[in-house]
């Protein structure tokens, strides 16, 4: 099951969404150009929980060095499927959330969701030695906001079932609720298993980002003049 597009036209041009996608792609191209130096690069700019927990024991690492990794890790990815999946979801759902918030607030929203997702992951895996990278936590925040604001928006899904391939259209609430439950279930299974056993996927970062997005979209004021479709849900401010 893979989303192709939504039927919820944005009222503004998504400058920030496109800029974030471009930065992620440029960062990934730089990663694949590093060759053998990539591992050192990821240890420096990825979120490594054990380094966060023990930065005071490593003379070469300061608190700012580990703090910045909660941001830099959002723009790094571990492979083509990783970056394509994240950026595709951001492309489909990010423009509407950006239109609702406005460009500046959307950037703040995106980065905050990513940082909160990183904190959740760190809190549950403080001794992990694996560098955590990817925009998944921040994108999950966008999905959470979309889930709350545009539950009735229609989303086209590409369905694969053995030799059966079909495109169906369903409400966004169904797609995103199923996505969230999958993350929650996978996170529950991974508890106690460790990152190595769980395939290195930060499931709880996705859960944390999604819930942060739901909360933050309620707290941040919306853009005054949004020409977005009738699928939106109004909140009392």
Structural features, described:
With 237 residues, this protein is mainly alpha-helical. It has helices at 15-33, 38-45, 49-53, 63-72, 80-101, 103-124, 136-149, 172-190, 194-197, 203-219, and strands spanning 2-6, 154-161, 164-171. It has one domain: Rhomboid-like (Rhomboid-like fold). A hairpin with a 2-residue loop joins strand 2 and strand 3. The longest helix has 22 residues, at 80-101. The radius of gyration is 18 Å and the shape is globular. The two termini are 36 Å apart.
Say what the CATH topology is: Rhomboid-like fold
Return the string of H and E elements: EHHHHHHHEEHHH
If helices are DSSP runs of H or I spanning 4 or more residues, what is the number of helices?
Answer: 10
CATH class: Mainly Alpha
How much β-strand is present in the residues?
Answer: 5-15%
Count of folded domains: 1
Which CATH architecture is right? Up-down Bundle
Helix amount, in percent? 55-70%
Roughly how many Å apart are the termini? 36 Å
Question: Mean pLDDT, rounded to whole units?
Answer: 90
Low-confidence spans: pLDDT under 50, at least 5 residues? none
Outline: globular
How are the strands ordered across the major sheet? 1-2-3
The secondary-structure class comes to mainly alpha
At the fourth level of CATH, the homologous superfamily is Rhomboid-like
What's the count of strands? 3
The major β-sheet equals: 3 strands, antiparallel
Gyration radius, to the nearest Å? Answer: 18 Å
